[in-house]
Design brief:
Layout lengths: L8 H14 L9 H20 L7 H28 L3 H25 L2 H33 L1
Helix pairs in contact: 2-3, 2-4, 4-5
Length: 150
């Protein structure tokens, strides 16, 4: 038994064709930098809100938290957009963002542990380089494996 042609059939067929063609496009690789920057924006927003003297559980403190979070999010998106306009590919942008997040935290943790600014800066710099390389290599490797699957 054949189903009668209806108006919805042609648009659904066109959508299915576009969807099938989109399967051949290379998909985005995993990006560690974007994931961690998203998490750290939440941490930074809450830290900055409490450092400004607002309580996160109260109404105005929540608004300040949301405002700081949106400001940091839009700043990160603007930086990512500028890097894209410069011509950096997605794995490189992600690796730069991850190294920009990891380096200062390693710097601060080493400084608090050993109370040595020189050693903490060296450790933060080395951690930034390693975070950049690991993220870049992982993203490139996963990007290549996704292309092999096609």
């Amino acid at each position: 038994m054949r189903l009668p042609d209806q108006k919805i059939d042609a648009p659904m067929r066109a959508y299915a064709k576009r969807w099938m063609k989109s399967l051949d496009r290379p998909r985005a690789s995993t990006t560690l930098g974007y994931f961690f920057v998203g998490l750290f924006i939440l941490f930074w927003s809450s830290s900055l809100t409490t450092m400004l003297g607002f309580d996160l559980k109260k109404g105005f403190g929540s608004l300040v938290f949301i405002g700081v979070g949106l400001l940091l999010t839009f700043s990160a998106l603007l930086i990512i957009r500028i890097m894209a306009l410069i011509g950096l590919d997605r794995p490189t942008r992600s690796a730069i963002m991850l190294s920009a997040v990891i380096g200062p935290y390693v710097n601060l943790s080493v400084y608090h542990a050993w109370n040595s600014p020189v050693i903490s800066h060296i450790a933060g710099f080395i951690a930034s380089i390693f975070a950049f390389l690991i993220s870049l290599l992982l993203d490139k490797m996963l990007e290549r494996s996704a292309e092999k699957v096609k």
